[in-house]
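Pasting as-is:
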Amino acid sequence: MSADHEIENLSHENRHFAPSETFARNAIAQVDLYAEAKADRLGFWAKQANNLHWHKPFTQTLDWTNPPFAKWFADGKLNISYNCLDRHVEVGNGDRTAIFFEGEPGDSRELTYAELTREVKKAANALTALGIKPGDRVAIYMPMIPEAIIAMQAVARIGAVHSVIFGGFSAESLSSRIEDADAKLVITADGGYRKGKASALKPAVDEALSAGKCASVKNVLVVRRTNQDVAWVEGRDVEWSEAVGNASDEHEAQAFDAEHPLFILYTSGTTGKPKGILHTSGGYLTQAAYTHKNVFDLHAETDVYWCTADVGWITGHSYVAYGPLANGASQVIYEGTPDTPDWGRWWSIIEKYGVSIFYTAPTAIRTFMKLGSQIPEQHNLKSIRVLGSVGEPINPEAWMWYREHIGGGQAPIVDTWWQTETGAIMVSPLPGITTLKPGSAQVPLPGVSAEVLDDEGNILGRGHAGLLVLTEPWPSMLRGIWGDPERFKETYWSKFEGKYFAGDGAKWDEEGDLWLLGRVDDVMNISGHRLSTAEIESALVSHPFVAEAAVVGAKDETTGQAIVAFVILRQNQIEAAGSDSDVSKILRDHVAKEIGPIAKPRTIIVVAELPKTRSGKIMRRLLRDVAEDRPIGDVTTLADTSVMQSISGKLAGGAND
């Protein structure tokens, strides 16, 4: 392998899956979408925007006179909640199910569009009674229950700005985000159910607001979910059941400017001052609805959709709280974890509700691979017709397992690339059009312009890897970092003038398909060769022994950096794998064969689990701490903090070189 290859990837994939004739014929998205967007990009986006209801129609599509600060549909007015709820009821779809809720303990609720609209109207009146006005910020710290969606929609309905904070964050993280947004109200719950037991939430809010912190907060609105005993601050804390339960269900949605702020979402893993990504209304909902409908081939009258993301992340905003409701979809919301009461829980939910569109993360798919196909095989998954992947690149073998064992060997997989900052999917196949390729996100969506550049800003063609940029503004783009416009310009727009730098490596393969290589931070320099962690992880997972792998670069006096791999073995292969030293030799040789000798890991460590956040992200910085024998950093956002103790102990007991 020569240095000319720069960042490499397993893009020699030669398996292809064309859509069936029947699927293509009935697909929502048709080939002319690409031609239409190419011929008149702004006209294309104006057409998508007009699928929404505008209280005051817009006349200007894009104002880009002050880049990088875009304005989309700026002279138009709309109400986000009206578009997600009222309009469906008004055209006669009030009896359609909006939410199938499945609680972890086994309780369930079903809310029609009429019922959800009524609850949101009551919550909007309750928020107004608590003094919340348009532009006020409201922090939401809740489990995945219907009230979380109701709260978000109610905040949007009255023109306030929500900041949803993931329920797994600590009191300190919560406090910093509340303070940065200067939030006036916190909406929370006593707790939620997780891994078979009640997990408290309100104590973290009480701690975050203690000792004079977060002085902007006037009230805390509390949903009773678990009925745990919680501390109560008279005059500040308010029962949801009383405030919302006693409110009127009459509420007329007021129109707000298209550029009215909708939400602030703090990016995960930030250090120091939190980075609040700001999204506004008209452009955001336009692209969230457009991508949800076309990427997932949504037929709202018949499909049951399920995205497993928590509303604390951008996926839970765009593809749970907003996109599906804007399109009148029926969707599943599940409160708990996929392993409670057993690892068949997700598949039993799909079977119970007849889920036809399923959207989840590669890390979950690889976990199920590790456990074996016998678990999903116990359930009827024939309702599934479209599968989606989000959060990180999906390696080809996980893609194939997903298609075969969850999609019945037939369902197309849409591998989606996007970010908190982009607001909506940017790169993805369209299932009725694209001939699918395992592991590749493939093509920018109609209306999206992307390029791969080298460090000097030169456009790279097929076969070359570099830095992914977006070259034209898009409707759902972030409008800034809350309270810090200079940081916004410096972070996203300073590397290449006039272009948004995503922070990800990418490559066009020889067939013109795009491969995402992960964060540029995850590129290693091995003896002058630039290698992607994603490439080596894919090589490892392509071996039958390996269910999941995480690769990091560690300092090395000889090569600059050395490759350290942490691998989880498939349960049904552990006995065949032999000792850890046997596994190490076999896997190192396998990587050398797949990629080249330069890519052989120096060290391979067999582990039981990898350090992941509750959203499923692998925290590679902690693995780098282990690989470089440094003190392990902050582990508070891990789903299981004991994982790092186990990994550290494994390394201390002798690495497999």
